[in-house]
Amino acid sequence: MSFYEEVEIEDMTYLPATQEYTYPCPCGDVFAISLEELWDGEDVGLCASCTLRIKVVFEEGDLPELEELEEEEEEGEGAKEAGEGAREAGEGAAEAGEGAAEAGEGAAEAVAKLAV
């Protein structure tokens, strides 16, 4: 496997909110690798916008602790909010459908009056 570059983890930017390390890619996007991937022994950072990849040089002792609990709670909250949003959207669609049916009835009455 070929790499664009070997990068020391100290030269990467750590984003605590997403538990992800990033490094600028020459295409304008960034290479990224998650903390979980690093703890699993992965060492390849990928760019989402192009085919380049980097090899991340690190030692496990240099990594911050993996905080799985917070991530799972956030995912659970996001799923709950998405479910509520979908339910509200469904109710809005039902109301829109009722309004369209009423408008259709009104249009039919107007056409009937014109035909007379």
From TrEMBL:
Belongs to the DPH3 family. It catalyses: 2 [3Fe-4S](0)-[protein] + 2 Fe(2+)-[Dph3] + NADH = 2 [4Fe-4S](1+)-[protein] + 2 [Dph3] + NAD(+) + H(+); [3Fe-4S](1+)-[protein] + Fe(2+)-[Dph3] = [3Fe-4S](0)-[protein] + Fe(3+)-[Dph3]. Residues 3-59 form the DPH-type MB domain. Pfam families: Zn_ribbon_CSL. Residues 77-90 have a biased composition (Basic and acidic residues). It comes from Tetraparma gracilis. InterPro entries: DPH3/4-like, DPH_MB_dom, DPH_MB_sf. Residues 66-116 are annotated as: Disordered. Gene3D superfamilies: DPH Zinc finger. Keywords: Iron, Metal-binding. Residues 66-76 have a biased composition (Acidic residues). Pathway: Protein modification; peptidyl-diphthamide biosynthesis. Residues 91-110 have a biased composition (Low complexity). It comes from the Eukaryota. This is Diphthamide biosynthesis protein 3.
